[in-house]
Specification:
This protein has about 450 residues and is an alpha/beta fold. It has twelve helices and 19 strands. Strands 1, 2, 10, 11, 12, 13 and 19 form a seven-stranded mixed sheet that branches. A seven-stranded mixed sheet has the order 8-7-15-16-17-14-18. Regulates the GDP/GTP exchange reaction of most RAB proteins by inhibiting the dissociation of GDP from them, and the subsequent binding of GTP. GO terms for molecular function: GTPase activator activity; Rab GDP-dissociation inhibitor activity.
């Protein structure tokens, strides 16, 4: 503890572990501490099942759930976009050697009271009842435009401009209905609300392109999920950090950040001070430097059957666009099962999440919970969402954002890359990342 470090990282959430690994690989001396005895922090996977019941202060588990140690329950449900930023980080770092992935079987969208599979190829697009015949033709033209679109090549823009044409104007150009625009922006573009409609179209076009590029890798859906749960991810990056000289200390109470002239110089734990040039932490370690921007509500549901109307999928995502249920923000369902080694044989985990908009957070989940069929056990959690009050440049205290309600990692990765830039002063270079995704095991 008397040594001086380049960086001290507090908390072993996924964001903090990824940053710890990236900084260790780049040659920085890292000390990583957590007040908990386990990895993952807010994004942990709880095992055995008794740990989940204990966390939510519920009575002991029933024998019908099988062996408790067969369960690894994510507190923050997320899927990984196959061609997204997290896969590039995993490959860049070599963490894939510690993990095994399985393709998520389907991506679905809620429309007009029913659940529809998001078309995964041209054949499904022609067969889907999500759109009428003429709308399918218009949508196909739109998708061809998106896949051919290049930000730096005006000849592919077809009269639009990625920096000035709004997404609303693009939808109108191709004659797409509001219903089609709804599922395109939310299920393909993964926008959290409808603000994107009046923003420049470049970002949304790239998002939809990423969705279909990810889909092309595996066919069923654009998403991957690690066997044994998301808790494997922070542990993988912790191993990486340790290989490159990072030091880890779990079950370490954090007493205070030591400041001199408004700049952090170290962290005090159990009467000792470890000195460092900067500190990275999640908001729980530095609440006076973070601001609350909202809440997320999540329902962890134990099911003994797949979600109805998903073709008996052992894993899937369902997105409920805000307009379909009269809300300001989307709702998400993330489902995995015993085939991912996260629950006992014959069991399924479905986690429903959304941004809180009223005084009755649990009631807001009803439209999504109604899609799950019978629920054997349900755990409700409401989490405050925090963002750093400043960029950390003056104090050298760099704080991550809380996890939002989305069921994918793109917003999480945006925060990681932004923090890396703030800490190091340089952009994370994805150009260095190996492009061959076949190294990701299935």
């Amino acid at each position: 503890m008397n040594e001086e470090y380049d960086v001290i990282v507090l908390g072993t959430g996924l964001k903090e572990c990824i940053l710890s690994g990236m900084l260790s690989v780049s040659g920085r001396k890292v000390l990583h501490m957590d007040r908990n005895k386990y990895y993952g922090g807010e994004s942990a996977s709880l095992t055995p099942l008794e740990s989940l019941f204990s966390k939510f202060e519920q009575s002991d588990t029933n024998e019908k759930f099988g062996r408790g140690r067969d369960w690894n329950v994510d507190l923050i449900p997320k899927f990984i976009m196959a061609n997204g930023q997290l896969v590039k980080l995993l490959i860049h770092s070599g963490v894939t050697r510690y993990l095994e992935f399985k393709v998520v079987e389907g991506s679905f969208v809620y429309k007009g009271g029913s659940v529809y599979k998001v078309p995964a190829d041209e054949k499904e697009a022609l067969a889907t009842s999500l759109m009428g015949l003429f709308e399918k033709r218009r949508f196909r033209k739109f998708l061809l435009f998106v896949m051919d679109f290049k930000q730096d090549d005006p000849s592919t823009w077809q009269g639009t401009n990625p920096k000035s044409t709004t997404m609303n104007e693009v939808y109108k150009k191709f004659g797409l209905s509001s219903g089609t625009a709804d599922f395109t922006g939310h299920a393909l573009g993964l926008h959290l609300d409808d603000e994107y409609l009046n923003a420049a179209c470049g970002d949304t076009i790239q998002r939809i392109k990423l969705y279909y590029e990810s889909l092309s890798h595996y066919g069923k859906s654009p998403y991957l999920y690690p066997l044994y749960g998301l808790g494997e991810l922070p542990q993988g990056f912790a191993r990486l950090s340790a290989i490159y000289g990072g030091t880890y200390m779990l079950d370490k109470p954090i007493e205070e950040l030591v400041m001199e002239n408004g700049v952090v110089v170290g962290v005090k734990s159990e009467g000792e001070v470890a000195r460092a040039k900067c500190v990275i932490c999640d908001p729980s370690y530095c609440s006076n430097r973070a601001k609350k921007v909202g809440q997320a509500v999540r329902a962890i549901c134990l099911l003994n059957h797949p979600i109805p109307k998903t073709n008996n999928a052992s894993s899937c995502q369902i997105i409920i666009p805000q307009n379909q249920v009269g809300r300001k923000s989307d709702m998400y369902i993330c489902s995995v099962s015993f085939t991912h080694n996260v629950c006992s044989k014959g069991w399924y985990l479905a986690i429903v999440s959304t941004t809180v908009e009223t005084d009755n957070a649990e009631a807001e989940l009803k439209p999504a919970l109604d899609l799950l069929g019978s629920i054997e056990k349900k755990f409700i959690a409401v989490s405050d969402i925090y963002e750093p009050s400043d960029d950390g440049q003056e104090s050298k205290v760099f704080i991550s954002k809380s996890y939002d309600a989305t069921t994918h990692f793109e917003t999480t990765c945006n925060d990681i890359v932004d923090m890396y830039r703030r800490v190091t002063g340089s952009e994370f270079d994805f150009a260095k990342v190996q492009k061959d995704l076949e190294t990701v095991e299935q």
